[in-house]
Amino acid sequence: MLDNVLAAFMFFTRLPFWKLKTVPQECFKHVVAYWSLSGWLTGGLMALSCWGLLYLFPAPVAVIGALIVRLLVTGALHEDGLADFFDGFGGGRDRESTLRIMKDSFIGSYGVIGLILYYLLGVSLLLALPVQVLPVVLGCADPFAKYVGSHILRELPYARKEVESKAKVVYDRFTWKEMVASALGGLLPLVFLPLSYSWMLIGPVVVFFLLIHLFRSRLGGYTGDCCGALFLLAELSAWMGAAIVTHFME
């Protein structure tokens, strides 16, 4: 299990965990099971950076700075998937064309516009939150959205052949031990979330089922880009839920 966790940190971040140990290639088939655990790192760094920046700068700088920290840590891995998702589902007309466009390494107009709108909306939602809640929401939404998104393996098969995978790996379904580890990774950080903000957790679940339906109907399965898009859109819906809670508490 420790090798699998280390493989997840290697896969989902750019931090030099590879210097600690060389893990077997087989471990990378299990990384999605520990995706939420990697969220402790990425979400935690966002929360800490936001908290620190709030002491020095206005809230917009702290929010944008926290998002930049995660981009640097992950190498924009999930954002690349989101852009490919927008390009593929925006420009594709059937399964084959959608998969072909999503695999293209060049970003198209749908991807550019999608990422711009995603960040404009995301920053606006986060700035609607009280500053004392901002770091907590950032720290909790990341691992929870990854936990919700990881269940894509239980709902859909892989849409491509393994040799066609960008990452050259097809993820294995969870064992019961991995299900427990995934749940702990996604749910344990929520103990820091104020009870009134627990409503924000509904959005990611709704987004999950909507996107699962879309992936099933268009592709008959999922790809790595679908995983990245699912995570970011689920997280965005959590931020939106937190903004709605804040609005009704005022």
3D structure, described in words:
- By secondary structure, the protein is an all-alpha fold.
- 66% of the residues lie in helices and 0% in strands.
- The chain is built from eleven helices and no strands.
- Helix 4 packs antiparallel against helix 5 (95-103) and helix 4 crosses helix 6 (109-127).
- It is globular, with a radius of gyration of 18 Å.
- The model has no long low-confidence stretch (mean pLDDT 93).
Short description:
Helices cover 66% and strands 0% of the residues. By secondary structure, the chain is mainly alpha-helical.
Number of strands: 0
Structural class: mainly alpha
- Overall shape: it is globular
Report the total helices: 11
Q: Give the SSE order as H and E letters.
A: HHHHHHHHHHH
The residue-averaged pLDDT reads 93
What is the helical fraction, as a range of percent?
55-70%
Computed CA radius of gyration, to the nearest angstrom: 18 Å
Largest sheet: none
- For the termini, the CA-CA separation is 45 Å
Secondary structure topology:
Blueprint: H1 2-12, H2 35-54, H3 59-74, H4 77-91, H5 95-103, H6 109-127, H7 134-150, H8 152-155, H9 176-187, H10 202-218, H11 224-249
Keywords for this structure?
about 250 residues, mainly alpha, globular
